[in-house]
Design brief:
Blueprint (H helix, E strand, L loop, with lengths): L27 H11 L25 H16 L24
Length: 103
């Protein structure tokens, strides 16, 4: 794990959480920093899985993007302190591919 810094993308750790990496913007890091500032003794880990411009159908169980996200989350759990690492929430932004009118 590395300290958070923009952009919170996979490019910062090419050998660890490999996968599609077109991340670079988004609220993930600022959100984590705001939560961490409000809670004592809490450490926030970000597991970047974003793939911009994708439809929600590519994130369904059994699809590659979903499977990659689950794999990365399990890897993050395994890399954290034993017995102290938990996934408590997910920050999800979706809709880029479906944001245009079909008319």
């Amino acid at each position: 794990m590395v300290p958070g810094a923009p952009p919170a993308s996979l490019g910062r750790q090419p050998g660890r959480l490999q996968g599609h990496d077109n991340a670079g913007v988004g609220p993930g890091l600022a959100f984590a920093q705001a939560i961490e500032a409000k809670l004592d003794r809490v450490r926030i880990a970000l597991v970047p899985c974003a793939v911009g411009g994708t439809p929600i159908s590519r994130w369904a169980a059994g699809q590659r993007l979903y499977d990659d996200c689950v794999r990365k989350a399990k890897l993050a759990l395994a890399q954290g302190p034993c017995g102290k690492t938990h996934i408590r929430a997910a920050l999800w932004l979706q809709g880029e591919a479906e944001s245009r009118s079909k008319s």
